[in-house]
Design brief:
Largest sheet: 4 strands, mixed
CATH class: Alpha Beta
Pfam families: NifU_N
Helix content: 25-40%
Shape: globular
Protein name: NifU family SUF system FeS assembly protein
Order of helices and strands: HEEEHHHE
InterPro entries: NIF_FeS_clus_asmbl_NifU_N (IPR002871)
Number of domains: 1
Strand order of the largest sheet: 3-2-1-4
Number of strands: 4
Length: 160
């Protein structure tokens, strides 16, 4: 079966983010940190976030994962820099709905991560795609709930 030109473009964007991920590494200084893994396939992400005045100023991730997991983490970091932390829950839910094949009216808010809508055709890859988003949501929620203090580095290990 031949891929349409649009499918080829989406595939190229995913391969580019997987091969050359944006914001990969460590911040050195971060206010939030979380580590999560997907036990189904072995993906692991360590996420560091610098938050100031309720806004994500910088973000970095490291770990190991499949091409979908890595591409999604790269796209997520691009999409959330400059966003208010109180937007992260909505963006995470929006992305989750998108990769599950649901209609997402404001999907453009996800930036290039919108191209991962095709993951819905591969249900076993949904956890791979959502790992980074769940990690960010967890870090932000723990910070807002008082579990984490936004002035200090916190480490959390959990399965997605």
């Amino acid at each position: 079966m031949a891929l349409s030109k649009l499918d080829n473009l989406y595939r190229q964007v995913i391969l580019d983010h997987s091969s050359h991920p944006h914001h990969r590494g460590s911040l050195g200084k971060s206010t939030l940190s979380v580590q999560m893994n997907n036990p189904t396939c072995g993906d692991v992400i360590h996420l560091e976030v610098e938050v100031a005045d309720g806004v994500i100023k910088d973000i970095a991730f490291d770990g190991s994962g499949c091409s979908i997991s890595t591409a999604s983490a790269s796209m997520m970091t691009d999409a959330v820099i400059g966003k208010r932390v109180d937007e992260i829950g909505d963006l995470t839910l929006m992305f989750s709905d998108l990769v599950q094949g649901k209609e997402v009216p404001e999907a453009e808010r996800l930036g290039e991560a919108e191209v991962l809508a095709g993951v819905s055709k591969f249900p076993t890859r949904i956890k791979c795609a959502t790992l980074a988003w769940k990690a960010l949501n967890k870090a932000v929620n723990e910070s807002e709930s008082g579990v984490a203090d936004s002035g200090h580095l916190h480490n959390h290990n959990e399965e997605a």
